[in-house]
Amino acid sequence: MEQTLKSKVNKQHKDLFAEFKKWEPLFKDVRDFINPWLGFFEGEEANSGLRTDEEMLRTMPIKYSHILAAGLQWGITSPTRPWVKFKFQNQRIMQSAAVLEWLEIVKNITLDLLFRGNFYPENHQFYLELGVFNTSAMMIEEDSETVLNCHTFTCGEYAIGLDSKRRPNQFARTMEMTPFQIVEKFGIDNVPQVIKTAYEQNSYTKMHKVYHLICPNENYKEGKLDKSSMKFADYYWMDGQKTDEFLRRGGFHEFPVMVERYQVKGSDVYGTGPGIWSLGDAKQIQLMWRDISTAAELGVKPSVQAPSDILKNGGINLLPAGANYYNPNGTSDGGIKPVFQVQLNLDHATAVQQAIEECIKEHFNTKVFQLLSEMETGRRTAREVIELSSEKMSQMGPLLERLETGYLPQVISRVLSIGFRAGVYPTPPDEIQGMAMDVEYISILAQAQQQYVITPIMDTVNSTIGMATQAQLPEILDKISWDEVVDQLASLNGIPPSIVVSDEQVAQIRQARAQQQAQVNAAQMGMQASQTAKTLSQADTSKQNALTELLGGPSSDVEPLTRYNGGQ
User: Fold this and answer.
1) Are 384 and 249 in contact (CB under 8 A)?
2) Which residue from 377, 428, 515, 557 has the highest number of Cβ atoms inside 10 Å of its Cβ?
């Protein structure tokens, strides 16, 4: 019997989650010891309000995971400053004022769409999941009100699959939704009878499972706009529906789920990273903190021994100022005293704990973000930050490269595609119609990485100026292409193109300046010539001087200079 579409989709969904099950015990461990307020796994009730931090006595792993997330948000995709710009490889095109203006408008609209589409709160959650579980997923959907809408998923509620190039192209999700949420999303006519009944009975809180699958469309036809022919197919369904019934069936022009892995080993589907790497340290620090707490408690409240007679008076009262009565003439040597002396020197244990904590800090790159914060606030110069964090910044390099070649291009491409389909972008100038547009990231973290390029440029410029000054040889400065230096520094520092004057404009400015200077020089030469003539006309040629020698000496036969010049 031929497999129905519904059964194929359902099987693919189960297979993806079967692969995830291999990772689930590890992810649960990471959740318990790194950040217990993330993750939602099978068997756990949604919206239960139950505590999940029973394993947590020392909460610093939570703190460091949030520092990483906040640092990535601030350093890569800050909502308070531009972090992306667009350009073309053709330098001639990039000299066009119309093109530069269009690129600036596209950048501003893109950033505005992200802001209005709830990107930044969800993006912070994306980074948090990435640091803790080392795999993260965000869906960007089209929205009739805000053009687009973003939603980040937590570990355990989704599973992913890869294409032949090991890129995520399949996404399965199991959701918990109320009847009202289901009806609102899919419509009353598309839900099974059990949901209709619950909705009509005003059932507000009971949760129902909804299954979701996005995968490559076997019926994809390039150029067709109907949802059944799009590149990726989209299915929603529930238990209890008929064999070939779906809550909704649609499609996407491009894969709508932005998936990133912190680091990938071989053919692994899910990533590894700080959360997994620091799991052993996180477990050990909880164990040590429990021992330190026990030792401190024994020092404050030691186990005691007392004469048996004291039991006749109600036992031992260990409260402050508590009274205890006993018979001093009894068999005991009397008094209440500790069973053993507790040694409260915890220096060694504290030192070990601090060493473990430093390891966790290193895994989450805490110090890098602290140094970048100091650079941004002016407490340290870029050079100081480079010197102090060169090794740590090099460790951040692979992550930054992965985000700038994977996650961020996915986000920008999806936003641009949605925006152009919605008609929110202006029509491109004719000269760039059909040309591919490049994306450049100009975030704080990217610029910090660029300092490794900027610093040698500035060192060379400053050294050249110093040599020219010291040797009194200004011609040395001719070795530097100053225009190129300005262009390179502006690009590396992420300066908007509108601030830097184009080569054509520079040429026009310099030509006008040269013409103006030529006019000034001509005027000055005319004035000098006029003054010279005046001086010469007033010279006494009757006596021996330099002028008379030049003219052949004083002579009555020589006419006065004025008459001589006039005679010319």
Assistant:
1) no
2) 428
